[in-house]
Amino acid sequence: MLKLYAMFLTLIFLVELVAAIVGFVFRHEIKNSFKNNYEKALKQYNSTGDYRSHAVDKIQSTLHCCGVTDYRDWTNTNYYSEKGFPKSCCKREDCTPQRDADKVNNELIGIFLAYCLSRAITNNQYEIV
Q1: C-alpha dist (Å) from residue 5 to 2, 10, 16, 56
Q2: pTM higher than 0.85 for the full model?
Q3: Domains in the chain, CATH or no CATH each
Q4: Which residues contact 89 (CB under 8 A, 6 or more apart)?
Q5: What secondary structure letter does DSSP report for 23?
Q6: What does DSSP assign to residue 70?
Q7: Could you give the count of Cα atoms lying within 13 Å of 92 in the half-sphere of its Cβ?
Q8: pLDDT in tens, the chain (129 residues)
Q9: Which residue ranges does UniProt annotate as crossing the membrane (predicted)?
Q10: Between 20 and 30 A from 46 (CA), which of 2, 52, 109, 122?
Q11: Cα end-to-end span (Å), the chain
């Protein structure tokens, strides 16, 4: 019984290791795919509550950001021309954003720090002791 448990743990570890290696090898393709899909979701954003719009709202409110790279990404969308920035771009809970850029999140601290960490790991991966 203990050998079976050890075998399952080893199998799970190997699956995680393979997933990590595949993620590392294809990191640029994964990043581009996420970026393209997120840009497409911004273009098709509406306030009716479909799953793409809900995902965009959730990402922006959780990461405290607005748009793909910054709030100016919204200016190319139909939603912006009709209603301005979405509520998920707000810095504060009680704001009602229209077209005022000072009311929206334009800092991407979390994404920037994740990028810096990824870059540091990539640059130091072949350190010789």
Answers
A1: 5, 9, 17, 41
A2: no
A3: 31-124 (1.10.1450)
A4: 60, 66, 67, 71, 74, 97, 103, 104, 105
A5: H
A6: S
A7: 6
A8: 888 899 999 999 999 999 999 999 998 998 888 888 888 888 888 866 788 888 888 888 888 788 888 778 888 888 888 888 887 887 766 565 555 555 555 554 555 566 666 777 776 665 554
A9: 6-26
A10: 109
A11: 41
Return the bridge partners of 90, or none. 104
DSSP annotation of 46: -
Q: Which residue has the tokens 């709030």?
A: 71
Rounded CA separation 91/64 (Å): 7
Let me know: does 97 contact 103? Beta carbons within 8 Å.
yes
Question: What Å distances lie between residue 31 and 43, 75, 76, 88, 99, CA to CA?
Answer: 19, 23, 22, 23, 29
Residue 104: φ, ψ to 5°: -110, 160
